[in-house]
Amino acid sequence: MVDVEPPSGARFEHHVVTMRPAAMTAVLDRGGQRVGLIWRHRFAPDVWNWELPGGLVDDDEDPADAARRELVEEVGLRVEGLRHLVTFEPVIGMVRSPHHVYAATALDGVSTPTELNEGSGLQWIALDSIRRRIDDGEVQNSGTLVALLHLLAFGAE
Q: Of 23, 132, 131, 8, which is closest to residue 70 (Cα–Cα)?
């Protein structure tokens, strides 16, 4: 419970959920025409959808380091040019959970993924198919939506 005092001055108490920050990366192929996505099942909404590699940021871990770590754990990939796109709050009214979104270019595979429950493995999806996939409900994860829409609106640079 937190004590809230809005601009009107009428104070009230409200529940706030605090969750660990998350970090995810939109990995582009060297040509910048495809993005690496994972076909994953999410049990809470019982949904299969395309998602970026990513996960939770550990205590005292830099979000960019978490993004790099998750890439190795989930898809065994090292990247170059990791750059921050945006940080956003997916449920800003009552949940604290900053999501740090990055973009990078695929460099090379460095290991076999160690996370065995992370979906189908990385698949290279054409950027020009993303709008249709969003329209068809194939992308529902908030971080993935933000990253992909950012790339479509502003480009990969």
A: 23
Under 8 Å between Cβ of 54 and 85: no
Cβ neighbours of residue 42 closer than 8 Å, sequence gap 6 or more: 48, 49, 140, 141
pTM of the model: 0.88
CB atoms within 10 A of CB 155: 9
What pLDDT sits at residue 115? Answer: 57
Pair of tokens at residue 40: 């994953």
Q: Which residues touch 98 (CB under 8 Å, ≥6 apart)? A: 21, 22, 87, 88, 89
Measured CA to CA, the distance from residue 31 to residue 28 in angstroms comes to 8
Gyration radius from the chain CA atoms: 17
Beta 2-4 vs 122-126: how paired, if at all? unpaired
Note the Cα 9 to chain centre separation in Å: 37
pLDDT tens column, 2-52? 888 889 989 999 899 999 999 999 999 989 999 999 999 999 999 999 999
Contact of 81 with 104, CB cutoff 8 Å: yes
